[in-house]
Design a protein that fits this description.
The chain is mainly alpha-helical and 118 residues long. It is 69% helix and 0% strand.
Length: 118
């Protein structure tokens, strides 16, 4: 029953990474389109499963672990240098400037026209 010698183990590890990322750092992606988040998950899943099949589980998990390096760098070094808390993303105005997002989150007309363009 608890056999980890199949691809479901890799799927669960990738899913767990994305779960923790969404719980603890999801507020950094609050204005990103939902389809982009879904595509990022599936691309990561395909890459890790392919690496596991062709190069082995160890390589796949090392690559998955290595993806944490840019996350740690951005949230631990880049954002604090810009005056943004790397854990909470505050102040939001600076973070929105950093991402190139419109600071006026209550502009319904702007969001409706953006969604119609997509």
């Amino acid at each position: 029953m608890w056999n980890t010698n199949n691809l479901w183990f890799e799927i669960s590890i990738v899913t767990f990474f994305f779960l923790l990322g969404n719980i603890f750092l999801g507020h950094f992606e609050e204005r990103s389109p939902k389809w982009r988040k879904l595509v990022k998950y599936f691309i990561t899943l395909v890459i890790i499963i392919s690496l596991s099949i062709f190069l082995g589980r160890t390589i796949a998990l090392i690559v998955l672990g290595a993806t944490l390096i840019p996350v740690i760098y951005v949230h631990g070094i880049v954002l604090p240098k810009k005056g943004i808390n790397g854990w909470t993303g505050e102040p939001k105005s600076k973070y929105y400037d950093f991402r190139g997002w419109d600071k006026n989150i209550f502009s319904i007309e702007k969001h409706e026209t953006e969604s119609e363009q997509v």
